[in-house]
Specification:
single chain; Peroxisomal Thiolase, Chain A, domain 1; globular
Length: 415
Amino acid sequence: MQENFKRVVITGLGCITPVGNTVDDFWINITAGKVGIGNITRFDTSDCKIKIAAEVKNFDPLLYMDFAEARKYDLFSQYAVASAFQAVKDSQITGNIAPDRFGVYFGSGKGGVNTFADESNKLAEKGVSKTSANFIPMTIANIASGLIAIKHNARGVNMAVVSACATGTGCIGEAYIAVKSGRADAIIAGASEAAINKLILAGFQNMHALTRRNDPLTASIPFDKRRDGFVMGEGAGALIVEDYEHAKRRQAKIYAEVIGYGNTNDAYHITAPMLDGSGAVSAIKAAVAEVIDTDKIYINAHGTSTPLNDKTETTAIKKAFGERAYKIPISGTKSMTGHLQGAAGAIEAIISVMALHTGTLPPTAGYEEYDPDCDLDYIPNYARKSNITVALSNTFGFGGHNAVIAFRKPLKSNL
């Protein structure tokens, strides 16, 4: 018996990022090629080789929660709650959905690691009795999903995906499957990360994953031959993933339709991607199964600015699309945001949706030197107008996780 799958659309967006704390500000800056990377202000870097990161600026948690709540939330939870608040407000879904049909799929690659580091230091210096009673709920990675559900009376399906840098895309993709199969009418989906602290920097620095170039404008340069590592970023992104018929009945604004999702694993190495890109190829092909030959495709690449990732992703795109790959415009927007780690897929999904919604493709900032191993169209330095109909967001994470999601422009004739 054929299953009656539902159409799924995006009806709300929200974000906290290194280049803007609302979607409007974020989009203005990301299409202008503004780089959000700078010197680290959170801690003393005098004994660190790495001095830069893409920090969120001017974030005021009291716009989204009261002071008592903010004290009990790790920064990653504050970002998560803020981005979800924006997305829900944008969608105007409050009061227009049954609580048990409203869900939350919101994850984090690391959870409350700032609290973990702070409380570990406190334990060592002051003893057990001084450890915070809120330590556990502040650090567990699922707490953001729970807090968002409480804030918005979302009593339906709830999940916190944790799959390293593929976390955000995994949350959106799994939300898409849940809505498509009828398990929910709408889901707040996304991810948050706030891991710019000395402990995390030391770990990435000592595994040689970060760039050693401490110039903010040339540090994160995806697909450029000079690339030598990624830049840590932070923030959160949230999207309202909704059943099309439900959205139509309440006359919601529709940004894009979700048309595919691929989720695979390399089963190869804990940090390095499969050299032939085969795991990523499988995820891309799964996501684009409904794409037709006449669709004009755009890709927001994972593009971490590491030598191996960018080369492997380029290979995967060429294997997935063949000669067509050379005609697909691609952005490496981590050139501006840095790598938001678990939240990267959520922010880059928003970029993909906004590219469809506005017809503007953001650039790969700071791109200068061609690499023969990365020979596709990376939209260097300046945004580009385009009449794309499909946008893909690629994300790949430690542990071999590959997640790709595909969006289509909502043509009026189909709505």
